[in-house]
Amino acid sequence: MSYNGSIFREIIKEYEIRRREHEKEKDSRLREIYAKLPDYKAIDDKIADISTEAAILSVEGDSFVIHEASKKISELSVRKEELLIQAGFPRDYTKLKYTCPDCKDTGYIGSSKCHCLKQRLIDASYRQSDIYPKLNDENFDTFSLEYFSGDTRDEMENIYKLARNFTDTFANTYTNMLFYGNVGSGKTFLSNCIARDLIDKGYTVIYLTALRLFELINDHVFRRIGSEYDDEAYMSLFNCPLLIIDDLGTEVLNSATVTSSELFQILNERDNSHKSTIISSNLSLEQLKDTYTERSFSRILGGYELIKFNGNDIRLMKRRQA
Fold first, then answer.
1. What's the predicted TM-score (pTM) here?
2. pLDDT value at residue 225
3. What's the pLDDT score for residue 314?
């Protein structure tokens, strides 16, 4: 990826800080329970005594003691959970919580990078960090139909259902989508909803404006001096689980033939390997056809669900109401 060693170390340090914070939070919850439930602390002390005694006896050759100790500790652990529930706490209240339970906030599962670390490195490589504030505001939980009415409202409700189905079935189905239509009609918002939902589910998502995508393509094709771009970053455009290209048609196509050819290659290879792509554009289908090569347009038209957004400019309506 196009990140240097210092960025990687900084990300790993973030994981270390995160683990320490979760340890502090766990210790704080445990102190709270000890203060409120003396019996809980008594059980913890008893478990500690059993563990110590079992360790000593096992060294002396008593192998049966480990089995008996494990049985007693299991029974006492059940009692601890019962005490928490009776006092109105969740059964796992004193356990260590992780931001990513899969890697336990280490960034690795065994010797392989966890999906969460891969996403962090993708973010660093493609400078995606600026999208995350948007994902906090633009997600399925904040989606609303209040700015739509009549047939347009019904259409948006159906589009919303399509987007939810896309993420709900992402693990088992292969779908590409082209969102096109009026400026400000909700295309980017729905793309953000999908990105947020899949990132939360552990999938790696590359989210790029068309302008940024074509900058990366040009960096790769022309090997610009001083570029931080590398081959691995370019290959991620082909093999990441979901690629979202926002605002196709807003980029300036210098050396258009070469750039469009590279776009076709990306779309074609992703289709061949069944890697989903979402494209949004303010252009009409006819304008897209006039802008890009015939085979790129045919790839989009033939392999994508074409979803037209007919609504008015929501951003303009919000400003008027402000």
1. 0.67
2. 46
3. 60
Instruction: Return the structure tokens found at 78.
Output: 């059940």
Query: Which letter, b or e, does each residue of 136-155 get, where b requires 16 or more Cβ atoms within 10 Å of its Cβ?
Result: eebbbeebeeebbeeebeeb
204-218 as b/e, with b when 16 or more CB fall inside 10 Å?
bbbbbbbebbbbbbb
Helix, coil or strand: residue 147? coil
Domains of the chain, CATH where assigned: 5-86 (no CATH), 127-321 (3.40.50.300)
Q: Which residues contact 36 (CB under 8 A, 6 or more apart)?
A: 87
pLDDT tens-digit series, residues 244-273: 999 888 765 544 556 677 888 899 899 999
- The DSSP string of 209-266 is EHHHHHHHHHHHHHT-TT----HHHHHHHHHSSEEEEESTT-S--TTHHHHHHHHHHH
**Tokens, residue 274:** 């069944």
Q: What string of DSSP letters covers 265-303?
A: HHHHHHHHTT-EEEEEESS-HHHHHHHS-HHHHHHHHHH
Q: Which amino acid is at 310?
A: N
What pLDDT is stored for residue 77 in this prediction? 92
Q: Which two tokens stand for residue 229?
A: 């771009």
How far is Cα 143 from Cα 153, in angstroms, rounded to an integer? 13
